[in-house]
Amino acid sequence: MGTRAATVDYLLDQLAGAGPVTARKMFGEYGLYLEGRMFALVCDDQLFLKPTAGGLALLGTPTEGFPYPGAKACYLLGEDLIEDADFLAQLARTTASELPLPKPKKPKAPRKQA
Questions:
Q1: Where do the domains of the chain lie?
Q2: Pick from 7, 10, 41, 68: most CB atoms within 10 A?
Q3: Averaged over 56-74, what is the pLDDT?
Q4: Is residue 36 a contact partner of residue 2, using CB atoms and an 8 Å limit?
Q5: Tens digits of per-residue pLDDT, 81-105?
Q6: What is the dihedral of CA 35, 83, 78, 93, to 10 degrees?
Q7: At residue 35, does pLDDT exceed 70?
Q8: Alpha-carbon distance 90 to 66, whole Å?
Q9: What does the alpha-carbon distance between residue 111 and residue 114 come to, in Å, rounded to a whole number?
Q10: What is the CATH number of domain 5-98?
Q11: Is the dihedral of CA 89, 90, 91, 92 positive or negative?
Q12: Among 63, 65, 45, 53, which residue's Cα sits nearest to residue 91?
């Protein structure tokens, strides 16, 4: 089905209090990033948060779901949590702070001319 751009725009508005959150399109869905760390996925218009100890402490007993077939389980956030912008921003900051920065990409080797 894919995620609608309007859903991502709404989530970015709700997450504005967390800091500079950006969205990157990936295979018709989106990854959400804070300070270079991907902390959530938006798939089929649903928000999936990467599991962390801090996120678990804030959520209590979260609902788990799979953003796509073969994916690891994530916390599936319901509409009630998404509508609370302050809590969502706190949850995003806490989760992102516990995730590692991505490894730097190796520069591409120059192509050999034939």
A1: 5-98
A2: 41
A3: 94
A4: no
A5: 999 999 999 999 999 999 988 888 7
A6: 20
A7: yes
A8: 23
A9: 9
A10: 3.30.1460.30
A11: positive
A12: 53
Return the SS3 of 52.
Answer: coil
Angstrom distances, CA of residue 46 to CA of 82, 83, 101: 10, 13, 24
Residue type, 74: C
Question: Quick one: average pLDDT of 65-73?
Answer: 93
Distance in angstroms (rounded) separating the CA atoms of residues 95 and 55: 6
Order the strands of the 46-49 sheet from edge to edge.
21-26, 29-34, 37-43, 46-49, 74-77, 64-65
State which amino acid sits at residue 88.
L
pTM summary value: 0.86
Q: Of how many residues is the chain composed?
A: 114
d(CA 90, CA 85): 9
